Amino acid sequence: MHHFNPKLDLAAQVGWLYYVEGLTQDQIAQRLALSRPVAQRMLALARSEGLVKVRLDHPIAACNELAAALAARFGLRLCEVVPAPAADSELRSLGVAGATLLERYIQRPEPLVIGLATGRTLRAVVDEVARHPSPQHRIATLLGVIAPDGASNPFEAHTWLADKIGAQSFVLPVPVLADSPAEREQLQAQRLYRVVAELAVRADVTLIGIGTVDANGALLQDGFITEADVERLHREGAAGEMLGWIYDTDGRLLDTDINRRVTSIPLQRHPQRLIIAIAGGLSKLGAIRAALHGECLSGLITDDRVARALLEDG
């Protein structure tokens, strides 16, 4: 039964005209013979009293809910979820989301250090970044940029980003994997390595990818490891890789010879700075889940299929 309340009834009428009929506050004031301030107050009252309930009928609304749930479940400071695209546009969808985030930092006037990994996903992110002169920033790589044959990595992203924003880039002048643990020690002892590594670990924001350890994984595809290595790593419990570091289903680094040769910046649990992984596709679900369990990330950008699967089984 409706109880007559003149103020709430007027608020409901104002709310209807504004949200359903699409009138402006000036038009509502004119139609109901109200002053504009009164129309504003009635509209605010309609919202505060719960007379107005907004439902956004768009995939992004569900994505926002998934992102909030993922952030709460895994203790993330930042999480964004995008609608899962067709397979042939998966990288671009993640790239657009990553670029949108990255541009927020690029457009800041204070000097920042931006940490950047390499790989197809990170290259897709930089492809979508708009040109914006920002010479105050510095870009630092977190892993080696030299391919096994001595060539530069075809999917490096730092030089491309530096060119787009007019910033300096700093690279680790080493391969992703050294030939031996002893060689890794020698490479990491170099002054240039130490200078860039010290810059990278204090980056204000860092973007990395998440890879699988299988036939489709970047480590194998780009020639850093062999098929025999993949089979052996699987037997040892490999679930995924970040920056070349191989980890198990709990996100813990494997005690394996590969990790003893990785030259990348080390992964740290509970990072104080913003470390954001960008990865999607159900083929990477296991690697993403394990990375989250390892608690080395403070942010994630992924797609809604992966997000739902992560929330269903953790």
From TrEMBL:
Belongs to the SorC transcriptional regulatory family. Pfam families: Sugar-bind. Keywords: DNA-binding, Transcription, Transcription regulation. The keyword Kinase does not apply. The lineage of its organism: Bacteria, Pseudomonadati, Pseudomonadota, Gammaproteobacteria, Candidatus Competibacteraceae. This is DeoR family transcriptional regulator. It comes from Plasticicumulans lactativorans. GO terms for molecular function: carbohydrate binding; DNA binding. The keyword Transcription regulation applies. Signal peptide: none annotated. Residues 59-312 form the Sugar-binding domain. InterPro entries: NagB/RpiA_transferase-like (IPR037171), SorC_transcr_regulators (IPR051054), Sugar-bd_dom_put (IPR007324), WH-like_DNA-bd_sf (IPR036388).
